[in-house]
Design goal:
Length: 165
Amino acid sequence: MRTVWLTLLIIVAALPGVVLLYARKSLREFEGLHPGDALPGSRLESAGGVPVETSSWLGFPTLLVVFQPGCNACRLEISGLAAIAPSFPNVKIVLLSTDRNVAGTRAPFPVYFDPDGRFLKKVRKLATPAVYWIDESGKVRYARAGQRSASDEEALLRSLTENRR
């Protein structure tokens, strides 16, 4: 019986790799933006329906957080960023929701939606939250998926802002 369970575990663990192999696509195509990529130009909408161009973020170091409104890790990520944001007044932090329904989401940063879904398709990772550090020129310098602690985020932001000087 133990052998059967071990065999099933191995099959389940190997399945994603086999799917990617047969799909003949690199993992890169499934994971949103990567360091070195340019921020795609797009028109988003604020929670109030006001349009905003992603090009308006140029000239500022920007932290883009892609989140799902019902995601606990996303809420923790956003609250951790809210705690450390005052230490980084020159960094623009923006949130991109995967869903227009953000009822109950308390966001201390601007929240945007992607009306046609094209931008979201380019930046969404397999897991949320997805966090991107975008430099003043619009290049992605850092990308990751998954929630981190506020102290980890603070250390990251310190290193990224110090590397700009």
